[in-house]
Amino acid sequence: MKSSLGKSIFALGVILTSALVNRLVEAQVQPNEKFHINSQRLQGALEKLSEFGRNPEGGVTRLGYSDTQLAARKYVAGLMEQAGLQVRSDAAGNLFGHRDGSEKLPVLLFGSHIDSVVKGGNFDGDLGSVGAIEVTRALKEAGAKTRHPLEVVIWENEEGNHFGISTMGSGIAAGIWGPEILTRKDERGETVADWLRKYGQDPAHMTDARIAPGALAAYLELHIEQGPNLDEARIPIGVVQGIVGLKRWHCIASGFANHAGTTPMNRRRDALAAASRDLLAVRDVVRAEPGRQVGTVGYVKVEPGAVNVIPGRAEFPVELRDLDAARIDRIWEKIQTKFREVDAEEHVETSCVPLDDIAPARTDESMQAAIREAAKSLGLPTMDLPSGAVQDAQQMAKLAPFGMIFVPSRDGISHSPKEFTSWPDVANGAEVLYRAVLLVDAARDRK
Ligand code: GLV
Ligand code: MN
Ligand code: MN
User: Fold this and answer.
1) Which atom of ligand 1 is nearest to the CA of 160?
2) pTM score, whole prediction
C-alpha cells in the first residue's frame, strides 16, 4: 500500500485487493469514501416526495393508481428529467427514465416504487426510487459513461393496497398478469381499466408493458430493510440473499343475519364467530410449524354490522409468506382443514378464492458480490439477509439476474408513519447503488 491510491484505500480501514481496485477503477468508481452521489439533494427530494399524500401522523397514504400517486409521479418524472433521463410511462403506468449506453447491450434496470400502504412511511420504496434517480444525476455530473443503457424504473402499485395485488406493475411487466385483471374492482367500484385510462393508458394494450425476455442485463434495487436485523447489529448495508414468496386468499364466511335478542345461542349461524376462530386458526397453524413462515389476517369486514344483529357475513383476507413456496401450500392445506371444522361447528360456510401469488426468488451471486464490493470500496461492512417483505425485484427475477441492497430501518419499523432510516444510512445506500451499478455495468455481457 505505497501509492497515494493505496493510502486512501488504507484509510478506509479495510484492505482492498488489487483485483478489486482494478475493477473499481475500470468501472469509474473512486475506491475511497468520497461520495459520488449528492446526499443533500437526495434528502431534499425525499422530503419533498413525502408531501404527496402526507398524513397528520407524518407518514403518507399514497396508494398505487390514485390521484395522489399521479401527482407524486409527476414530481418524480421531473426529477428524472433533471437527471437527463428520457421519461416514458409503460401501458401499466410504470414510469421509466432512460439513459443511453455506449454499446448495443440489454438494459441495466434499477429503481423501486413510490406508492405506499394505507398510513405508510416515507422510506419504503421512496428511497430506492429517488436514490436511483440521484445515481443517474450523479453519473451525469461525473461524466461517467456506461456500456449498458441504464433505466430507472418506478413501479406502480407495489404495495397492492389498491386492487389487492402486490407488485402489480412489475408483475404485469414480468408477464404474470394479463387482461383478466382489467375488470377487477376496488371498493368504489372502479376497475383497473378505469385507472389505466386515468393514467393516460389504453387498457386494451396493458400487456404491451411486458418486458421481452433478453431485454434486461440485470436488475438492482435499493430498499430499506423493514426489519430489525441491520439496525440491531449496527451494520449499514444488507446484501439480500432471497425474497419470500407470498400467497393471498379472499375468504367469505356466510352465516345468517338474525335477531340478537331472540335467536337462542344454539340456533345461531354467526359469521363473525366463525371468522374469529378462522383467523386464530391461521395464526396457530403457522406457528405450529418450525421455520420463519408468517401468516396474517389483516382485517375482517362484517355485515350487516349492527349492534343487535348476529353477523351474517364476514369477509377477510389470509396472507402467507415464506422462502419456500411448497411450505406455503402445505400450510394452506392445513388451514383449510381447520376452516372446514369451524364451519361444521358454527353452521357457517366459508369459501376462499386466490387473490395474489408471488413466487419466492433468490438473488444472483454475482450481483451480491458487486454489492459487497461496492460497500467494501466505501469502507462499509455488510450483512447477508433475506427479505421478509415482497419486492418488485422478485418479479424481475423472471427476466434477469437481480440484486438488492438494504439499509437499516430504525427499530425495524415499517409500513408505519414511524418508519425511519437515518440520513447517513440513506446516503450510504444510494452511494452503494451508484457503485454497484457501475461494477455490474463493467462486468456483465463481456465476450
Ligand atoms: C410490501 O412491502 C409487502 O411486503 O407487503
Ligand atoms: Mn417496498
Ligand atoms: Mn411495503
Assistant:
1) 5
2) 0.88
